[in-house]
């Protein structure tokens, strides 16, 4: 690969799909087949998208490494550059560099139950885990607890509803919490009364018991969500070492140079871009400011 | 280590020979401040300087640098490095470069930094502390490596430590300028170092410092100083180990753009700002405290992120003193 880690590689936008009014799913393929061949990653890692001439921004990989030949990014229109990429057309080229970060320890978790807890856009990196787990079938039960604002905000809605209907055979249980009521939500709730409710993501824990010896929790969502979800998990005696979360910070380089993503104090400093973005709750206990 | 002696008489020949290795930069005086500038003549140098405003990092981590240039939709590398000689670095600044090395030369290697670092010859020089220096407390008052040659002042010249293969090459090429070191030179060297050691006025007791600072996270002292602080970011700019950078694409005309990076400061409000307006360090208190924690972090393989050069004190418009802040924070634990 390139001598210069700041250099991105050309990737073609194969497909752009509206997931919600704010989020689009981009399917990309590297122009150079050799680059595509070498590009492997683990769920939880991210790439930096290079809008040449306009800037760069970090985005989680939301596809799974088990599905080769393309990568997918779910991008929310949040500001200047993400607005710009939303305006691009299929067939156009962007730069991609990465993958960066540590990702989730998929091997270590083999044979265990996984509880994925997603809030809003946090569904994006966890979709990679979800696919990976279902594709490899190396895990016991896979649960997805997903909290969204409204029906219109549910990312990958078709996939989620499909899993609600047919996931059982794959050992997959999907639960959904929404905050804003709408006819569509009510309809969904009627179909899956035990798994869809009005409320926040922590409400989905109600009545659930886990095999704490054999379960990992993987969390991704807005900053406020972590403490509440972690409390639920600790209440059920899940070990802090089995609670994984993926975090967001301002990032410029993605490779531990620019200093923007540094958190911590004199006893423990972490770079979210290279020591993370996946951390355990133990890490959060020893590094202030992580969550 | 190999040791040779350079006499006062031979200094200018030695100095002139350095131009064979590249452009020579050395401490000079501009108005009331010292600065590393290109020099052509020995007369321009201030050998007895205290500290320059910008540390030697400016040669490797440029205040502003072009990384790429956009041509036909593709980035072209813009790295350029020329051979330079940095003459007269103090021990703390050499340690500062070692800390930057740790960041930029660790995988993945930053090619811009590496190219410039490899082309730079580093010549250290001994110094006497002033009221701002506390390198002694941090173990950075003496450089054991990280230089090609190190000149220690003697009454009649310099005791020169040869620290690298390139240092050997210089000593070799200038063989007739150097002499063997005598017992008297050794005595003088020892005396100088002892005198220097006794001249430190500022001290930062290091025992348990990292933990005590961490324990004092909610200390009112942080708040007290954050209120005095102007958030100007000077302390970041002048620090030999601060190296946060911001990246920005800039159009030159409708066809060409450059990607530049430039110094950033954790005192700036947008340092931790992400999309949607969420800021991970929203208040000045958060940012002030963050800088102190970052500087006081102890990395078992490279030490503290502070080398005790005293620049942040000397160039702080609010007269905030680094050691005093840390001492007060630690004191507030009681
Ligand atoms: C590890 C990681 C994974 C992410 N994954 C996703 C994802 O899967 N989907 C998604 O939609 N978003 C994701 N984000 C957030 C995404 O990076 C920001 O939404 C994006 O950078 C906003 O850029 P902008 O120019 O549109 O926004 P603006 O608000 O216009 O940004 C202003 C400036 O701040 C910078 N900036 C803003 N937010 C961030 C940020 N979080 N990190 C670094 N720089 C930032 C931008 O680069 C820009 O220069 C992720 C962020 C991180 C750190
Ligand atoms: S130089 Fe002084 S006033 Fe300026 S940001 Fe640093 S501590 Fe604050
Ligand atoms: S924190 Fe201050 S004293 Fe320490 S290295 Fe930086 S500028 Fe020098
Ligand atoms: S993003 Fe630059 S150091 Fe982490």
Automatic annotation (TrEMBL), chain A:
InterPro entries: Cbr1-like_FAD-bd_dom, Cyt_c3_hydrogenase_gsu, Dihydroorotate_DH_ele_sf, Dihydroorotate_DH_Fe-S-bd, FAD-bd_FR_type, Flavoprot_Pyr_Nucl_cyt_Rdtase, FNR_nucleotide-bd, OxRdtase_FAD/NAD-bd. The keyword Iron-sulfur applies. Binds 1 [2Fe-2S] cluster per subunit. The keyword Amino-acid biosynthesis does not apply. It comes from the Archaea. Keywords: 2Fe-2S, Electron transport, FAD, Flavoprotein, Iron, Iron-sulfur, Metal-binding, Transport. Residues 6-106 form the FAD-binding FR-type domain. [2Fe-2S] cluster binds at residues 253, 258, 261, 273. Its cofactor is [2Fe-2S] cluster. One of its GO terms (biological process) is pyrimidine nucleotide biosynthetic process. PROSITE patterns: FAD_FR (PS51384). GO terms for molecular function: 2 iron, 2 sulfur cluster binding; flavin adenine dinucleotide binding; metal ion binding; oxidoreductase activity. This is Cytochrome-c3 hydrogenase subunit gamma. The lineage of its organism: Archaea, Methanobacteriati, Methanobacteriota, Thermococci, Thermococcales.
From TrEMBL, chain B:
PROSITE patterns: 4FE4S_FER_1, 4FE4S_FER_2. One of its GO terms (molecular function) is iron-sulfur cluster binding. InterPro entries: 4Fe4S_Fe-S-bd, 4Fe4S_Fe_S_CS, Helical_ferredxn, Sulfhydrogenase_beta. Residues 218-250, 294-328 form the 4Fe-4S ferredoxin-type domain. It comes from the Archaea. This is Hydrogenase. It comes from Thermococcus piezophilus.
């Amino acid at each position: 690969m390139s001598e210069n880690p700041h250099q991105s590689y050309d990737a073609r936008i194969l497909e752009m799909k509206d997931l919600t009014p704010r989020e689009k799913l981009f399917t990309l393929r590297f122009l150079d087949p050799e680059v595509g061949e070498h590009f492997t990653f683990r769920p939880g890692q991210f790439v930096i998208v290079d809008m040449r001439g306009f800037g760069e921004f970090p985005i989680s990989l939301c596809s799974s490494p088990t599905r080769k030949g393309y990568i997918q990014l779910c991008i929310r229109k949040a500001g200047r550059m993400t607005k710009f990429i939303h305006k691009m057309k299929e067939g156009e080229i962007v730069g991609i560099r990465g993958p960066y970060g540590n990702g989730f320890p998929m091997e270590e978790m083999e044979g265990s139950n996984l509880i994925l807890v997603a809030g809003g856009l946090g569904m994006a990196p966890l979709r990679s885990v979800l696919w990976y787990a279902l594709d490899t079938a190396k895990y016991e039960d896979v649960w997805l607890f997903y909290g969204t604002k409204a029906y219109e905000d549910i990312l990958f809605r078709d996939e989620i509803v499909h899993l609600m209907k047919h996931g059982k055979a794959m050992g997959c249980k999907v639960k959904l919490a929404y905050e804003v009521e709408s006819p569509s939500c009510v309809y969904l709730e009627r179909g899956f009364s035990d798994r869809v409710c009005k409320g926040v993501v922590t409400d989905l824990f109600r009545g659930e018991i886990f095999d704490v010896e054999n379960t990992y929790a993987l969390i991704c969502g807005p900053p406020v969500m972590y403490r509440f979800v972690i409390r639920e998990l600790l209440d059920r005696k899940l070990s802090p070492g089995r609670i994984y979360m993926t975090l967001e910070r301002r990032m410029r380089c993605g490779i531990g140079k620019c200093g923007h993503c540094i958190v911590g104090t004199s006893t423990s400093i972490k770079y979210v871009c290279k020591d993370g973005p996946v951390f355990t709750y133990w890490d959060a206990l020893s590094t202030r400011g992580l969550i | 280590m190999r040791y040779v002696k350079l006499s006062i008489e031979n200094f200018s020949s030695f100095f002139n020979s350095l131009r064979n290795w590249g452009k020579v930069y050395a401490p000079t005086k501009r108005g009331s401040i010292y600065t590393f500038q290109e020099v052509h003549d020995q007369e321009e140098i201030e050998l007895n300087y205290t500290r320059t405003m910008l540390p030697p990092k400016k040669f490797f981590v440029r205040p502003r640098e072009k990384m790429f240039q956009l041509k036909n939709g593709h980035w072209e590398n813009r790295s350029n490095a020329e051979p330079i000689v940095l003459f007269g670095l103090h021990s703390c600044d050499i340690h500062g470069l070692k800390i930057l090395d740790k960041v930029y030369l660790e995988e993945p290697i930053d090619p811009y930094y590496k190219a410039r670092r490899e082309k730079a010859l580093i010549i250290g020089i001994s110094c006497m502390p002033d009221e701002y220096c506390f390198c002694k407390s941090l173990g950075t008052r003496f450089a054991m490596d990280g230089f090609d040659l190190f000149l220690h002042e003697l009454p009649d010249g310099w005791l020169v430590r040869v620290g690298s293969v390139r240092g050997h090459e210089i000593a070799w090429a200038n063989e007739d300028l150097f002499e063997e070191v005598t017992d008297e030179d050794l005595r003088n060297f020892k005396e100088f170092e002892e005198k220097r050691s006794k001249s430190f006025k500022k001290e930062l007791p290091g025992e348990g410092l990292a933990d005590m600072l961490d324990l004092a996270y909610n200390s009112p002292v942080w708040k007290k100083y954050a209120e005095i602080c102007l958030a100007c970011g000077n302390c970041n700019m002048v620090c030999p180990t601060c190296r946060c950078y911001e990246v920005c694409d800039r159009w030159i005309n409708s066809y060409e753009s450059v990607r530049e990076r430039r110094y950033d400061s954790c005192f700036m409000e947008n340092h931790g700002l992400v999309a949607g307006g969420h800021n991970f360090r929203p208040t000045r208190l958060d940012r002030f405290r963050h800088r102190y924690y970052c500087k006081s972090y102890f990395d078992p393989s490279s030490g503290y992120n502070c080398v005790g050069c005293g620049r942040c004190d000397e160039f702080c418009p609010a007269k905030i003193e680094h050691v005093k802040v840390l001492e007060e924070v630690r004191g507030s634990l009681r």
